[in-house]
Amino acid sequence: MSDLTVAILQSNLHWQNVDANLAMFEEQIWSIQEPVDLIVLPEMFNTGFSMTPEKLAEVPGLKTQKWLLQMANQKQALVGGSYIVKEGADYFNRFFMAFPNGSSKTYDKRHLFSLAKEEMFFKGGTERLTVEYKGWKICPLVCYDLRFPAWAKNKYDKDDYDYDLLIYVASWPKPRVNAWDTLLKARAIENQSYALGCNRIGEDGNGYAYVGHSGIYDYLGETLDFIDNKEGILIQKLSKTTQDKFRTKYPFVADSDDFTINF
Q: Looking at residue 103, what is its pLDDT?
């Protein structure tokens, strides 16, 4: 399948209110009339970006995970976003990807946001995730990960790339939204990949303002779709055929430096 239709849900969030957020996003998901292959929700979409994991975390298999799997099954789409998960004594800012067949994959945010002291409350992930869906390789990342290009580096080996689509879900605040816009395009260009950024709007319980700027960019960094400071849903069809043709003609990733990341 050469095309992938993606949907981004940009919304204000109900502060630390799981039930209200799940109900809101469920209504938005059901408002999507056309068939879509992928639905993306913001960072900590069920609570807002909170540093009180002991109050908000769910162990795997509970309400939010069940809801994500239910939405994926009912819409026959891959559905993903991050929320707070507890495993053992540790808390994770976890990107959960729910597949229509009931399976799932997870990615734990690697780069924890030191300005919010996120590293004091959460444990960072150590492995990048790539999922395969409908002939596409998709790499999900979370918010602050966007500032670290080495972690997102696409690799080329024997006519194959690590991924075709980068996803960033975020609670990226208003004062630094220019960096969000710029870095999303940069990640698309340097990795010859589609890049999708899903941010929130509104004000959280700590008084931080968010102005959205969710967007979809192609492998040249061209803007395919964009939404400013308002609630809305972006829907865009991505073409793997045109991406493959561009990569074949201009194999820039194949010429890039090879390196490893030490933990």
A: 98
